[in-house]
Amino acid sequence: MTLSEIWIYPVKSLGGIRLREAEVKEKGLKYDRRWMVVDEAGIFLTQRLVTSMAFIDVALTPEGLLLTQRTNQESISVPFEPISNEELQVKVWDDWVLAVAVSHEVDEWLSRQLERKVRLVFMPSWSERKADPKYATDNENVSFADGFPFLIISQGSLDLLNEKLPEPVEMKRFRPNFVVDGVAAHAEDNWKKIQIGNLSFEIVKPCARCVLTTIDPETGVKGPEPLKTLTTYRRQDRKINFGQDVVAKSFGTVCEGDPLVILTEKDKPAL
């Protein structure tokens, strides 16, 4: 069992970046979803509402992020530290979070690309957003990710799905942080505590999937799959689950190829 892929998504709902190694922090992998696009009211935007966000790729540079609109090849740099000192309250799902505006220049560029008035905000280290206390085990904080700091999916789970689909989909549809190879499909459903390399993690809950998975990240076109097929075999309690939400119990660096060890599994319900 090995860690076969590591992904970060620095700007929520924009393009992902595959890494050879990444630093594990409480809120998630370093740089993962530390930036977010919001509307004029400070409400978060994603591809669920603005499918053209799928066309903006993100790259890491020594100075910060490089955003590139794939169809017109226009780019802009986003510094790791915001140019602005403007603090503002922004909303992601049900949470209001203190963030910092990045810069007027970036806001104008994004507004032009997305054809609506938007702003780019950054979550500084001192800003807190708590993971769902119903599942979080140690009052963990999370970035602008949907709910938890990390998402893990096995390659076997995707392979099984693709056997059932009329057209295969790539793992990037599901935006995981960790992809694990060498295990059976949905083996991750049964894990409770795991170790990747030298670091320990805890699986807290299944990840319920939404319409975002039906948007082709290359074309921005929305269709019925893969949710239509997942509904036939991954529906539970009116949710469609694929992958597992995770919190870190230790911090450091993970690398592609790191071994994964199952420390404990979830209790099986009595028959």
Short description:
The protein has 271 residues and is mainly β.
Helices and strands, in order, run as EEEEEEEEEEHEEHEEEHEEEE
What is the end-to-end distance?
A: 30 Å
CATH class of the largest domain: Mainly Beta
Query: What is the CATH architecture assignment of the largest domain?
Result: Beta Barrel
The helical percent reads: under 10%
Q: What spatial form do the alpha-carbon principal axes imply? A: globular
CATH fold-type name of the largest domain: M1 Pyruvate Kinase, Domain 3
Q: How many strand elements?
A: 19
DSSP summary: helix tally: 3
Mean pLDDT: 95
Supply the number of structural domains.
2
Give the name of the CATH superfamily of the largest domain.
PK beta-barrel domain-like
Biggest sheet, in brief? 9 strands, mixed
Structural class: mainly beta
Question: pLDDT below 50 for ≥5 consecutive residues: which ranges?
Answer: none
How much β-strand is present in the residues? 35-45%
Rg value: 18 Å
